[in-house]
Amino acid sequence: MPYAKSELLLDDGIESKRYLTIGAIHCTGKYLPNIRISSNEFNKLSWITQYWGLQCNIEIGPMVKDCIRHAIQCTANNIITNHIYTHTGWQEINGKFIFLCNGLYLDEDIETNIELAGKLSRYSLLDPTERFLNNDAKCIYKLLNKKFIPHRILFPLIAMAFLSPLNHFLKMVNCEPKVILFLIGKTGARKSTLASLILSFFGDFTNTDLPISFRDTANSIIEQTFILKDVLTVIDDYHPSTKADEQSMNKTAQVIMRSYGDRIGRNKLNCDSTLKISKPPRGNAILTGESAPDISESGTARYIVVELSKDDINVEKLTELQEFARNGCFKSIMSLYIRNIYLYVNEDYTRKLFLEKLRTHFIEYRAIIQNKLDDNAVTVHTRIPESLSWLWLGFEKFIDFLLINKIISQRDYDDLFSEFLEIIVDLAISQSKAITEDNPSIKFLTKLNLLLESKNVIVENKSNYQFAGGNNFIGYEDDMYYYLIPDMAHKAVKRLCDEQDELFAVSKKTLLKHLADDGYIEISSNGNTKELRLGNQVKRFIWLKKEKFNNVIQ
Questions:
Q1: What is the pLDDT of residue 503?
Q2: What's the longest Cα–Cα distance across the chain?
Q3: What SS3 class is residue 537?
Q4: Of the CATH numbers 3.30.70, 3.40.50, 3.30.1360, 1.10.287, which one belongs to the domain with range 136-435?
Q5: Which residues have a Cβ under 8 Å from the Cβ of 314 and sit 6 or more positions away?
Q6: What is the Cα–Cα distance from 270 to 322, expressed in whole angstroms?
Q7: Which of 24, 45, 307, 499 lies at a CB distance of 3.0 to 4.6 Å from 32, suitable for a disulfide?
Q8: What is the 3-state secondary structure (H, E, C) of 60-92?
Q9: Tens digits of per-residue pLDDT, 127-164?
């Protein structure tokens, strides 16, 4: 006979689903294992055979299933309903903002049960109580020592970690972070080890058990990044080994970049054709890989690259920091940091000031970064100053925390603040270069130049139009323009990219639009190609400006 043991409400922060824990006694007197079923499955009773097998045989009769259902519900009068949260991060419970993570207890009057599956169960914090100033402060001193990890690498990673618990409140003031860090290094540079060290602020991780991998499907990655609210995660090992592998991983990378870069989940339908609730990423992410994915200019603008070489990490010193992480020091530091935020956001007056300060500083930092770049005559994608201002905000809150807890002096604070500004300006400049290289126009012109120089394609002087032709022929030229046959020029560049194992997924129509928008070609009133008279014939060509072309390839 089956009977109800408990009722569960699984809450992911957006919607709640009800589940039942069912026990049973077989007619032989044997206790069957407890099972968990969704409330939607309950009435069907197909779960009886599914979970307990053929030994549980339902009698024949039209009303038997109703009798069994009724009997189970009669046993449920006094069962307890357990509210279980299936996500991390801030949640308003009984009028208070509580940070959900195993091991952290911010309010003894509010009970929080948290259930995370698989590798996500490694997320946990450690209530610092009295240990912080005695032991964990030493961890910070070691972490900030330049001899351990270069600051140009370490500081953006730390900034990302300490930005993560601010996500919920930044979203409240319409400044939700939309940035990803991409840690790039060759095999042996210890990028996964470094990423796992930073992730140790939020749990028990090593380089072999990072929570998410590029080998996971794009859907499962986005599902997990929704669960990991207001914490950092690592998506490890962008390392395609074949062309097909590269295409698959690039598609996954594109989904990841756009999901984090726009904070909009993919629209899906329920089985009844109603729209499912959108579930975008709610935390922050560090990606690791041996190279950056080829995902177009807009995709590249959604992440910041931090490059790591083999000589950057002192292995002996890194081992020392890993020992601190294993002892829970990093988790303790983050727990105290979150506890400080908890105190600010649960009083009306201080919460208002806290939110205002977050928004004000974000806007101020974005303007400062843009002005710095303008002073250095650096033109960047509009997303870059915004992305770096979020990192700056995370780093500021980190050093604020150190100053409040008297780990650093005011002079140390000022030095760290200034140093971080220099680091992010350098990041902006290098990111600008990467975005430029991914610009479809720049890529097309660069490859076209290679083809012309190697004579793999031929352009004839416009005056020799009657002798033009051949497999490699793509157009004409004069002193001012290359007159390119659209199909032939596009195909030639795409073929070269394929030979070099590079992606050039831009269609001819899209390429022409980019070239026109970027000012590299002359356009006509009825399209991005123009007519050219050659003897008695008039044909349409891409009128590529030689002066602009030469500026790109020089």
A1: 67
A2: 100
A3: strand
A4: 3.40.50
A5: 147, 148, 149
A6: 45
A7: 24
A8: CCCCHHHHHHHHHHHCCCCCCEEEEECCCEEEE
A9: 766 555 566 778 888 888 888 899 999 999 999 999 99
Measured distance CA(170)–CA(75) in Å, rounded:
46
Rounded Cα–Cα distance for residues 553 and 482 (Å)? 15
For 121, the token pair is: 């169960």
CATH 3.40.50 residue spans of the chain: 136-435
> Whole-angstrom Cα distance, residue 395 to residue 177?
14
Which pairs count as long-range contacts for 464-470, CB under 8 Å and 24+ apart, including other chains?
A: 465/534, 465/535, 466/535
Neighbouring C-beta atoms of residue 155, cutoff 10 Å: 25
- Indicate if the pLDDT at residue 265 is higher than 70: no
CB 124 within 8 A of CB 203: yes
| Contact in structure between 230 and 104 (CB atoms under 8 Å) | no
* Residue 98 and residue 108 in contact, taking contact as beta carbons nearer than 8 Å: no
| Cα–Cα distance measured from residue 507 to residue 434, given in angstroms and rounded to the nearest whole number | 21
pTM for the whole thing?
0.80
Q: Residue 226: how many CB atoms within 10 A of its CB?
A: 20
Q: Report yes or no: 312 and 148 within 8 Å, Cβ to Cβ.
A: no
What length does the chain have?
554
pLDDT top residue among 526 and 419: 419
187 vs 165: CA distance, rounded Å: 31
List C-alpha distances in Å: 198 to 179, 393, 440.
17, 17, 35
> Under DSSP, is residue 474 helix (H, G, I), strand (E, B) or coil?
strand
